[in-house]
Write a structure and sequence with these properties.
The protein is mostly beta strands. It is built from three helices and 31 strands. It starts with a strand and ends with a strand.
């Protein structure tokens, strides 16, 4: 496993980039800064290697932007209304960072943490972090690990494990932005997507779910059959207008724990196909509506809708919606979950 310097963070600490490679030439590069997936190189139909995730060339660039490219997100992925929750009868308030709500655990999320390398093999690496109660304001001290594994079947497996000394939220995800044409290839609106979900969570202003679970049938939210991401993204539909495009949780199941296929994606230009599997009960499909104009890896130009996210998770604001599957894990219990992104080529 190769290890190279990835620059210093704002605290002056050295960060590192670790490279895993399989027999097919597929490569992932992950950093201890944010336990971040920085690069994912897979072969296209011509045999050329394409880096299919957006990212930056050094740690400081991740600190200067707010898109969460490739980051490990926690303790809570997505939003918590009014940045507060009641757990075991106690009101807990955490720092707000988006319209009075908490997005991705507020300003002290896992994406800015320098994780420790707990161990590695030829095809995997495990990062660990102790998240104290003071770090984000959630109850309890949390020991969390994330393991990246690159299989010989060109799959990237991301496995999470957590244990805390108080009942607390454990809703971890990865925030990679995929572009199956290559990270530098521009907008993804013509790439095709299928999501294996019959329903989703509508939201109101502030991107907080209404609490409803609504059918996708007959709406632009329907991705049960593969279609271009941009086919209906500008439709006259309230949910799309509220989010500036797709940024919604799709309901995969009524409880977490069972591995299932959540999505497929395909780029006709490169022939690269992706299948995504998860043990989570939901997946946030975000079409990169607010990337803005940025300079990414190797000087690449990124803009709105230059990448899409499939963030496996509990439903947004689940800690405050009693009829949603609960992201709470009791003190002393170990929580585990895994998500897989597998790549292949179509002729």
């Amino acid at each position: 496993m190769e290890k190279i310097f990835f620059g210093k963070n704002r605290n002056g600490e050295e960060t590192w980039l670790y490279t895993l490679k399989n027999k097919n030439g597929t490569v992932i590069k992950v950093s201890d800064h944010g336990a971040t997936l920085v690069s994912l190189l897979v072969p296209d139909r011509e045999g050329s290697m394409k880096d299919v995730v957006l990212g930056y060339d050094e740690a400081s660039e991740y600190e200067n932007h707010t898109c969460y490219f490739g980051a490990t997100v926690g303790r809570n992925g997505n939003r918590i209304e009014k940045a507060q929750m009641v757990i075991d009868g106690v009101l807990w308030k955490i720092p707000a960072n988006e319209d009075g709500n908490s997005l991705h655990s507020g300003p002290n999320g896992f994406e800015g943490v320098l994780w420790k390398v707990k161990g590695h093999t030829e095809n995997s690496i495990t990062f660990a972090h102790l998240s104290t109660e003071e770090e984000q304001g959630f109850p309890g001290n949390l020991e969390v690990e994330v393991t990246y594994t690159l299989t010989e079947e060109n799959a990237v497996e991301i496995a999470y494990q957590g244990r805390a000394d108080k009942t607390t939220v454990m809703n971890f995800t990865n925030h990679s932005y995929f572009n199956l044409g290559g990270h530098e290839s521009g907008k993804v609106v013509n790439q095709k997507l299928q999501i294996f979900a019959d329903s989703y969570n509508p939201m109101r202003e502030g991107s907080i779910p209404t609490g409803e679970i609504a059918a996708v049938e007959g709406t632009p939210m329907d991705f049960r059959e593969m279609k271009p991401i941009g086919q209906e993204i500008e439709a006259d539909f309230e949910q799309l207008k509220l989010a500036g495009g797709y940024d919604h949780n799709y309901v995969l199941s009524s409880k977490a724990g069972e591995m299932k296929e959540m999505a497929r994606a395909y780029c006709e230009e490169t022939g690269i196909a992706m299948e995504a599997f998860t043990e989570c009960c939901g997946v946030q499909f975000y079409a990169g509506n607010f990337i803005g104009n940025q300079v990414g890896k190797g000087g690449a130009s990124y803009c709105d809708r230059c990448g899409f996210c499939l963030e496996s998770q509990f439903y947004p604001n689940a800690v405050n919606e009693k009829h949603f599957p609960s992201p709470l894990v009791k003190a002393g219990e170990t929580f585990t979950t895994k998500t897989i992104y597998r790549f292949s080529v179509r002729e």
